[in-house]
């Protein structure tokens, strides 16, 4: 009897002991996703310096597909950076899933070659006095049907570029690697945002919903690749006119909130005719305001530490480096996001 | 050399005279009739402006575009506009699937309209080729052209095969557009003439195709004719097609090609809008052929803005109209008079336009309220104030948006203010709330101030001018880069360093008499404690500026050499101003930036670039007040018949007057800034300031009363110095090339009478002390 009790007690202790996984050395980073800016704004630069960010994932271009043209690049970056003082740039390329659904193997070879060529060309032209490149990151939301082509492309790219290849990893393939495959990369960045289709679930925040996140992270297996983390620090407003979705606005949250009246969680009604960016909001229009605040991020970090087994060194990046989105956070909050992983 | 002050172009106010800045264009243009409020956004690329035409967004967020409306019609109005928009703008080829949730696609699939679906897919495929992109991966390879040609031929085949009328035209349009990017003008002409020319209904596809047809047409008159039709009927192509309208072709030739009244009106419209000068004749023609046309109302508005620029810009600011070229080199001729004459003739033109409006039936036009508002504004421009006010009162009662009501009130405020007699003009009670509502609208405030000023109410004018420039925080709001005022005065000449003003102080510094400044000060004293909202606004700036205003008043009296009055004014200046503005050298923390404003030397005893040669007898703290007081004291002493040392006092007075010129250390007695290059102004004592006339007079008196030769020589030396400055200043005025310095008779006299002292006195200033102490 005593032995059984002791056994129960010990096993209870062991089971209830939930060890939090830490990242011993966090490498802080940011994603820079803007295509139309020639340079970073003063504010963006100062945040980067204050947070001592030495790594930037910069979107170089996107790839799309058309029957006639095949694979072609769009949204090429206009960014130029001169004072790089030992920052590491990771060129990131966003590839639409249709590219891998439609392409044949031969065109994937060409694609890998083209992607490598264009990355190197831009890097040489736009990032003078920079450190030699060591890593490329591919961003693609692959599906079951495009999996094989995408993985083939990644391998081909690695052999041509001779660099570290990383890719973004959504939570669905993270939870179901046996179904979605494990991409043949050196490391993967787990994207903890855009968990839901923005237009479908009206009661949840499609950028980051904590319950959704937990349901994805709660898996017994650990992912067979080195994981870095990407967290969202952006907010947006979905505008609905006459109950129909019209468009999305990114803007200064505080300024716009003054015009809105809350109807139910996440939903607001417009109280004054105003033009914001190019959108003319009128009285009666509805807005789904999906906001991310520091509290939510901290909750997400808490979940990540609870469920994910990290390596000793890992990169934590925030999406994305944008003056307006950053204005919703203080410097302490931002540095808190990085440091929370090591606490 | 003691201190080299260098080039100090500082002004004690917040204006910026950086080298090279000169206002032009939109910064100068006066316009109280804001076209953006009137609802003609589709023509917004052609609003009258000093800038060149630029492409813009002609459809706002909530406007419905013609092509998408065509598709809604094609789907028999069973689908929502937004769903069509989503397909057109938001989808790529891959999104056109049977399982799409989009309403329009669902409709097409349900009705098994696979031809339309295939068309949409084909069109999406072609999107990439509607541009000049040849080398997407930047590998310098030519990739697009062959594929585009293939697609072009496919489009033609599809258009010939299909029995669906709408799709036939759509495929042909795609082909025409791709032919354009393939630069195949023959094909464009062929396709258009065979397919579209025979189309019965002219929808947006017809006009888009016609646009490309314009580009492919060699006959200039025919191209113009087509361009006019596209201009009116395809808003998104307006800017583009306006580039292809050839103004050299006589309009009569183009008109012969028009078959209907509407076509004729369209030709007159495009020709009229592209004109920078008077377009009334074309306007009348458009009215004749197409009175209920929104383009006609837009043309009227444009004409209004033109006349405003021609009349108001010169009338209020004395700058030429913003769209005229800056004829810099012709400024020797009095441009001012020419321009003011032109203003009168432009007012007459406004009268002609007014007459035209009076002669038509306002129910026959598309927007009678707009026409009435224009009429009221024209009545103001032709100085028919009473009728203007009557009409504006009527218009105020019409229910309009807040912005349009504000617009009407602005015009009314101007009219009411202008409709007052000389000497009796005030800020009327009715005008006050309008000012408060528009207190950041600088040109409006300025115009009101000007009207008052022209009618003799200089105090209220100055108070309004003082409130300008506070709108800089709104500098970028609503793209209002041009919310600023620059103006000239009649006495400005082009060689003034700064021949325009941007703030009240510079202006009243030059233009107001001492009496006007006094009246202003008294006005402020009387009214500064009023608590009503308008008075608070009106006096907010100047009620804290008494020290500066008294300083200015005293300075003006100094310029008129009315020393006692000057002293009385200077006495009223708060000591704080003297300390902060004029004595900072004591705190030695402002370096040389304030070097020009300060009294760091005693003007009676010390002359610039000259070692001190007179023992200093006063220990007065130096500021404008004490200098003036001292000056009066010494003049009185010198003029006292019992005074034994007249020469001494006259000499000190001479020194002071000398220092109060451009060459001295007390120039701030007469001016508010100093530049090395001399800075001519139109201030009343300009001659004295540069020619040292008073100094010379007093040195001559000192000479007359001097007892010893050495002292006489010294006086003569100082007189010669003044004379040299005078001659230099005269010389600078002449445009002649021969730089024969006029002989300085005082140097000659010095050489003749005191040859032994001449060299010592004229080679440098070190010996002055010796000569001064030899006075007795």
Write the layout of secondary structure elements.
The complex is a heterodimer of chains A (343) and B (776).
Chain A: H1 2-16, E1 25-32, H2 42-50, E2 55-66, E3 70-74, E4 88-95, H3 97-102, H4 105-126, E5 135-139, H5 147-161, E6 164-169, H6 171-175, H7 177-180, E7 187-191, H8 210-217, E8 226-232, E9 236-241, E10 244-249, H9 253-257, E11 260-264, E12 267-270, E13 274-276, E14 279-281, E15 286-290, H10 294-307, E16 313-319, H11 323-326, H12 331-340
Parallel strand pairs in A: 1-2, 1-16, 2-4, 4-5, 5-6, 6-7, 7-8, 8-16
Antiparallel strand pairs in A: 2-3, 9-10, 9-15, 11-12, 12-15, 13-14
Helix pairs in contact in A: 4-5, 8-10, 10-12
Chain B: H1 66-74, H2 81-90, H3 103-110, H4 114-126, H5 144-161, H6 165-181, H7 185-196, H8 204-216, H9 220-233, H10 238-242, H11 251-255, H12 261-273, H13 280-289, H14 294-317, H15 335-358, H16 368-381, H17 385-397, H18 402-418, H19 432-437, H20 442-454, H21 458-466, H22 504-511, H23 514-527, H24 533-539, H25 546-559, H26 563-571, H27 575-582, H28 624-639, H29 646-659, H30 686-691, H31 693-705, H32 709-733, H33 745-753, H34 755-763, H35 768-773
Helix pairs in contact in B: 1-2, 4-6, 5-6, 6-7, 6-8, 7-8, 8-9, 9-12, 12-13, 13-14, 14-15, 14-16, 15-16, 16-17, 16-18, 17-18, 18-20, 20-21, 21-23, 23-25, 25-26, 26-28, 28-29, 29-31, 31-32, 32-33, 32-34, 33-34
């Amino acid at each position: 009897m005593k032995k059984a009790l002791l056994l129960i007690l010990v096993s209870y202790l062991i089971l209830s002991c939930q060890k939090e996984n830490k990242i011993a050395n966090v490498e802080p980073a940011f994603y820079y996703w803007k295509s139309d800016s020639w340079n970073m704004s003063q504010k963006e630069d100062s945040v980067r310096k204050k947070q001592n960010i030495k790594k930037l994932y910069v979107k170089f271009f996107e790839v799309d597909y058309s029957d006639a043209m095949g694979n072609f690049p769009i949204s090429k970056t206009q960014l130029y950076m001169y004072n790089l003082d030992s920052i590491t740039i990771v060129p990131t390329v966003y590839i639409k899933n249709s590219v891998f659904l439609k392409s044949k193997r031969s065109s994937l070879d060409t694609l890998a070659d083209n992607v490598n060529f264009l990355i190197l060309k831009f890097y040489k032209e736009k990032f003078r006095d920079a450190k030699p490149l060591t890593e490329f990151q591919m961003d693609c939301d692959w599906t079951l049907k495009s999996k094989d082509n995408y993985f083939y492309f990644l391998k081909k790219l690695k052999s041509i570029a001779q660099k570290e290849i990383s890719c973004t990893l959504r939570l669905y393939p993270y939870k179901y690697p046996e179904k979605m495959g494990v991409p043949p990369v050196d490391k993967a960045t787990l994207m903890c945002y855009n968990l839901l289709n923005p237009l479908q679930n009206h009661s949840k925040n499609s950028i980051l919903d904590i319950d959704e996140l937990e349901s994805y992270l709660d898996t017994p297996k650990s992912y067979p690749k080195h994981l870095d983390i990407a967290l969202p620090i952006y907010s947006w407003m979905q505008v609905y006119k006459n109950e129909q979705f019209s468009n999305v606005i990114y803007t200064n949250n505080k300024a716009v909130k003054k015009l809105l009246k809350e109807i139910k969680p996440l939903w607001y009604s417009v109280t004054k005719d105003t033009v914001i960016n190019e959108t003319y909001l009128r009285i009666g229009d509805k807005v789904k305001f999906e906001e991310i605040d520091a509290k939510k991020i901290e909750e997400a970090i808490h979940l990540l530490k609870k469920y994910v087994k990290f390596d000793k060194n890992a990169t934590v990046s925030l999406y994305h480096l944008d003056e307006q989105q950053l204005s919703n956070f203080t410097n302490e909050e931002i540095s808190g996001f990085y440091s929370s992983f090591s606490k | 050399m003691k201190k080299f002050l260098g080039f100090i172009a500082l002004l004690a106010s917040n204006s910026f005279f950086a080298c090279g800045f000169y206002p032009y264009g939109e910064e100068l243009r006066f316009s109280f009739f804001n076209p953006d409020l009137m609802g003609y956004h589709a023509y917004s690329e052609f609003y009258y402006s000093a800038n060149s035409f630029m492409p813009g967004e002609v459809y706002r967020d909530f406007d419905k575009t013609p092509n998408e409306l065509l598709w809604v019609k094609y789907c028999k109005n069973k689908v929502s506009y937004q769903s069509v928009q989503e397909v057109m703008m938001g989808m790529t080829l891959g999104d056109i699937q049977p399982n799409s949730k989009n309403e329009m696609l669902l409709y097409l699939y349900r009705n098994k309209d696979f031809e339309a679906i295939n068309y949409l897919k084909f069109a999406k495929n072609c999107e990439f080729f509607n541009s000049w992109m040849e080398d997407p991966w930047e590998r310098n390879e030519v990739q697009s052209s062959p594929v585009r040609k293939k697609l072009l031929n496919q489009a033609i085949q599809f258009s010939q095969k299909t029995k669906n009328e709408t799709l036939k035209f759509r495929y042909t349009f795609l082909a025409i557009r791709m032919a354009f990017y393939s630069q195949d003008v023959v094909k464009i002409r062929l396709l258009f003439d065979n397919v579209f020319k025979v189309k019965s209904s002219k929808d947006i596809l017809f006009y888009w195709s016609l646009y490309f047809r314009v580009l492919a047409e060699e006959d200039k008159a025919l191209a113009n004719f087509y361009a006019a039709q596209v201009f009116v009927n395809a808003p998104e192509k307006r800017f583009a097609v306006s580039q292809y309208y050839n103004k050299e072709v006589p309009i009569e030739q183009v008109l012969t090609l028009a078959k209907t009244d509407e076509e004729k009106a369209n030709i007159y419209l495009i020709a009229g809008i592209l004109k920078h000068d008077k377009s009334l004749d074309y306007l009348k023609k458009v009215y004749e052929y197409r009175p209920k046309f929104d383009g006609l109302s837009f043309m009227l508005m444009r004409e209004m803005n033109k006349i405003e620029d021609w009349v108001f810009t010169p009338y209020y600011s004395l700058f030429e109209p913003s769209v005229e070229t800056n004829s810099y080199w012709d400024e020797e001729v009095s441009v001012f008079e020419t321009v003011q004459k032109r203003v009168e003739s432009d007012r007459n033109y406004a009268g002609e336009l007014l007459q035209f409006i009076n002669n038509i039936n306002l129910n026959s036009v598309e927007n009678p309220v707009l026409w009435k508002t224009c009429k009221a504004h024209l009545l103001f421009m032709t100085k028919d104030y009473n009728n203007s006010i009557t009409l504006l009162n009527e218009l105020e009662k019409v229910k309009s948006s807040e912005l349009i009501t504000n617009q009407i009130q602005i015009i009314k405020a101007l009219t009411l203010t202008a409709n007052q007699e000389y000497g009796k003009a005030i800020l009327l009670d009715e005008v006050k709330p309008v000012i408060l509502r528009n207190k950041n609208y600088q040109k409006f405030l300025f115009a009101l101030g000007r009207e008052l000023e022209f009618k003799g109410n200089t105090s209220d004018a100055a108070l309004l001018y003082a409130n300008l420039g506070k709108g800089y925080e709104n500098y970028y709001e609503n793209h209002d880069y041009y919310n600023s005022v620059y103006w000239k005065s009649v006495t400005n000449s082009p060689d003034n360093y700064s021949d325009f003003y941007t703030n009240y102080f510079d202006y009243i510094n030059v233009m107001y008499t001492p009496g006007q400044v006094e009246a202003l000060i008294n006005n402020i004293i009387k009214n500064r404690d009023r608590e009503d909202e308008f008075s608070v606004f009106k006096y907010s700036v100047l009620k804290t500026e008494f020290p500066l205003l008294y300083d200015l008043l005293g300075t003006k009296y100094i310029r008129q050499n009315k020393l006692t009055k000057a002293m009385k004014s200077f006495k009223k200046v708060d000591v704080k101003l003297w300390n902060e503005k004029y004595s900072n050298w004591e705190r030695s923390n402002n370096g040389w930036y304030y070097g020009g404003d300060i009294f760091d030397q005693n003007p009676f005893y010390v002359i610039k670039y000259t070692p001190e040669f007179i023992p200093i007898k006063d220990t007065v703290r130096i500021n404008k007040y004490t200098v003036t007081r001292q000056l009066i004291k010494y003049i009185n002493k010198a003029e006292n018949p019992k005074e034994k040392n007249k020469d001494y006092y006259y000499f000190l007075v001479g020194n002071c007057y000398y220092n109060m010129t451009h060459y001295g250390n007390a120039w701030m007695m007469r001016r508010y800034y100093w530049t090395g290059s001399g800075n001519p102004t139109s201030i009343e004592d300009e001659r004295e300031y540069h020619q040292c006339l008073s100094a010379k007079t007093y040195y001559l008196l000192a000479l007359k009363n001097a007892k010893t030769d050495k002292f006489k020589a010294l006086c003569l030396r100082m007189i010669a110095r003044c004379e040299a400055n005078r001659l230099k200043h005269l010389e600078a005025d002449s445009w002649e090339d021969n730089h024969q310095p006029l002989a300085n008779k005082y140097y000659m006299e010095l050489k003749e009478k005191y040859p032994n002292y001449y060299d010592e006195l004229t080679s440098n200033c070190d010996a002055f002390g010796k000569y001064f102490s030899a006075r007795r």
